[in-house]
Specification:
The complex is a heterodimer of chains A (293) and B (284). By secondary structure, chain A is mostly helical. Chain A has twelve helices and two strands, in the order αββααααααααααα. In chain A, α3 runs antiparallel to α9 and α7 packs across α9. Chain B is mainly alpha-helical and 284 residues long. Chain B has a two-stranded parallel sheet with strand order 1-2. In chain B, α7 packs antiparallel against α10. Chain B is globular, with a radius of gyration of 23 Å. The mean pLDDT of chain B is 90. Classes of the chains: A mainly alpha (293), B mainly alpha (284). Chains A and B meet through α1, α3, α4, α5 and α7 of A and α1, α4, α5, α6 and α7 of B.
Chain lengths: 293, 284
């Protein structure tokens, strides 16, 4: 469709400011990061980076850097576990919320609260609830569990907070997906006396799938780069169950480390994975748009 | 077809709602507790004039709010958050609306590619660019300045605001553009005098989203500020270290002050939420 415009040159002035800003603050830093990743560079010792080619990348794969791969593993575990829980819980809640009952609007609104709050701020408060001596959680279970430091429970504490925060996101997308299913299909199923299980498997799930998938990939991208919750709940020491990739990069790049080449290489690798996930999201977004347009 | 919800289903929903809202309620009441009440077990949950021993009552106090305003210098950081969020939101919505309009109304070579590029920038992990950014910011004199954060947050939200505004402009008939032209406006004039005033709901929805994400942002605020331009999320986390062993009261008070206004604000935008989280692709 020709949207009344056509071939005017004036489009440039509409689009240019946005593109210029993004190039300056997104593309440029990425290029700088890539350039630094090819050097040995310590701004305190010398102003001149020393060219080492792919040396930093090779070092990341080396034995001395096992922490990088552990961190990568933890990050993947976090993505799978928390996004899985969010999708399961969110979809289940949406199945209930699509039915009719009094106060539905209010309940839906209240359930959305966690995802609007600053994760860094709420995460700081969660430390209180997870406190070993007087935390509400330990009191509830009548235990003296440690939820921080190198204890494996710290990982699950972060998963729990992540799930608490983002289940509403999946719930909302699930609701939109459910609402987009034509009710005629259910009426037809009724006529055929199809059971609830059949309706869920043959109508609801397949038709809701595109939007659900979109939500899952969106969440996966965000969980993959999780920083704030993990950082405020358990700090940035290396080797902890919550030292995810972003936390590791932060520790190495800003923790007074001597060399910037290696953290930059790590950042570039992370970017690469994120972009692969992004390609997936673009694809799904396009499909969702075509479906609901 | 609208079925009524069954009782067991409503029970499950009620339990989840209670569990999900409990931490928030806890946060609010902790802000009114003395350190002794905040660490008492069993937890004290009812506000009262005094706190008898081993009861569920705590002594209701404003002392955390007082400390927050006096010794913690919260006003400074709060104003930083307000300044940075408001200005970056305005900038992001304006630049995003321009670009969104451009992509909605004009056909040009590379339009599709540019749109994808803009969407892709949303997927960049902050920590993948934080180091070079702090580098560039130091050189440019933007490190630890509010302007630096405003610029960056504008950019962070741009991907979202462009796509969102494009989706909204796609719904405004081109008849408006034609009418503007018949009135003798140029494209740019028409955009500002006719199209923009007609996209009020879209602008509002986009603005709320941008505002909330700037308000809550932590990673860049942590790596690109030191003292002057520190915003509330960074500050509130720092209270944990500053206040000794029992920072919970002041922490909860600051967090309440910081979180609740924005949460209330977000509730009003519920209608647009689905639209927002899918970058305008799906109407809720």
């Amino acid at each position: 469709m020709n949207r009344g415009g056509g071939r005017e040159r004036v489009w440039f002035w509409f689009v240019a400011p946005a593109v210029a800003l993004l190039v300056a603050l997104n593309v440029l830093p990425i290029l700088v990061s890539f350039a630094v990743s090819l050097t040995r560079y310590n701004p305190i010792l010398s102003d001149n980076p020393e060219w080492v080619g792919l040396g930093n990348y090779a070092a990341l794969f080396g034995k001395a850097n096992e922490e990088v791969w552990r961190s990568f593993g933890r990050t993947i575990a976090l993505v799978i576990l928390s996004v899985g829980l969010e999708a399961g819980l969110g979809f289940s809640l949406a199945l209930i919320l699509r039915k009719e009952f009094r106060g539905r609007g209010v309940v839906t609104a209240l359930l959305l609260l966690p995802m609007m709050l600053s994760p860094a701020v709420v995460g700081s408060f969660w430390r209180y609830l997870f406190n070993t001596d007087y935390g509400a959680l330990n009191w509830l279970f009548d235990q003296r569990w440690t939820w921080t430091g190198s204890n494996p429970r710290s990982f699950f504490a972060v998963v729990l907070v992540e799930t608490w925060t983002w289940t509403p996101f999946m719930m909302l997308l699930s609701l939109a997906a459910l609402n987009s299913i034509p009710s005629a299909l259910y009426e037809a199923a009724e006529v055929d006396r199809a059971g609830a299980w059949f309706r869920l498997r043959r109508i609801t799930l397949p038709l809701a799938a595109p939007l659900l998938l979109l939500g899952i990939v969106f969440r996966a991208i965000d969980a993959f780069r999780l920083f704030d919750t993990a950082m405020v709940m358990n700090g940035n020491l290396e080797g902890q169950p919550t030292t995810f990739l972003s936390v590791l990069i932060y520790g190495r790049a800003f923790g007074g480390s001597l060399s910037l080449g290696e953290p930059a290489a790590l950042a570039c690798l992370m970017l690469l994975v994120a972009m692969a996930l992004a390609a997936l999201v673009l694809n799904l977004l396009e499909r969702a748009r075509r479906k609901t347009a | 077809m609208k079925q009524r919800a069954s009782w067991p289903a409503l029970g499950v929903l009620a339990v989840y709602a209670a569990v999900s809202l409990l931490p928030i309620a806890w946060l609010i009441i902790t802000g009114f507790k003395s350190p002794a009440d905040a660490t008492a077990l069993p937890p004290r949950i009812f506000p009262g004039a005094s706190a008898p021993e081993n009861s569920l009552w705590f002594r209701f106090t404003f002392m955390n709010y007082r400390r927050m305003l006096t010794e913690l210098d919260t006003v400074h950081y709060f104003l930083n958050s307000v300044t940075v969020s408001v200005l970056s939101t305005a900038a992001s919505v304006l630049v995003g609306a321009l670009a969104g309009y451009g992509f909605s109304r004009f056909r040009f070579r590379g339009s599709r590619l540019l749109q994808l590029f803009i969407l892709l920038t949303r997927m960049v992990p902050p920590m993948a660019v934080a180091l070079p950014l702090s580098f560039l910011y130091s050189r440019a004199g933007l490190f630890d300045t509010r302007s630096g954060l405003i610029l960056l947050y504008t950019c962070c939200n741009l991907s979202f605001s462009t796509w969102m505004m494009k989706a909204f402009f796609d719904e405004i008939p081109t008849a408006y553009d034609d009418a503007a032209r018949l009135d003798g406006y140029s494209r740019v004039q028409g955009f500002f005098r006719v199209l923009l005033p007609h996209s009020g709901p879209g602008l509002a929805a986009t603005a709320v989203f941008c505002f909330i994400s700037s308000w809550n942002e932590y990673a860049f605020a942590l790596t690109l500020t030191a003292t002057e331009a520190v915003t509330m999320p960074v500050r509130i986390h720092a209270i944990l270290g500053d206040m000794g062993r029992l920072p919970w009261g002041p922490l909860a008070a600051s967090a309440t002050l910081f979180l609740l206004p924005v949460a209330a604000f977000g509730m009003f935008m519920r209608r647009h939420l689905v639209r927002g989280i899918t970058f305008g692709a799906v109407k809720g």
